[in-house]
Amino acid sequence: MTDMEQIMVKALEGQFWGWSDNGYTGRVRNLNEKPLPKKQPVEALPDVGGISGRITCNAIVRAVSVASGVSFANLLSHRRKTCYVIARQAAMSLTYELTRLTTSQIGKVIGERNHSTVIHAIKSVDKNPERYESIIKEARRVLDESGLRQAA
What we know:
The chain is mostly helical. It has seven helices and two strands, in the order αββαααααα.
């Protein structure tokens, strides 16, 4: 394969011009440089504040994912599609209500968000409970069936 063909292949693969899963890196890559690592799919959140047998942020996000039909990855993403936002806000509000985590901890765990985003989510759920009612009710049912206990 000629040098030009290698450049074209690498450019198509997103390796030469600095494209990664996080967007354009803004620099031209050396052809001998290793390719940027692929972002691993989100499978689980760290169980921040979790004590064995207690409800954790991970459990709440999974329950909301099941209740809303929004995938775990989309729930944690930065996408602004309405169904994702409503599910994400419900998860943040439930996490705040059922665990001892601070708004900063919740924001960090649910998609690397600022504490003010979590506060906004909690206020949104409080202001318009009927919009979130079905998701929260179903998520609570899923959590009840899991046998986990609420933080005391």
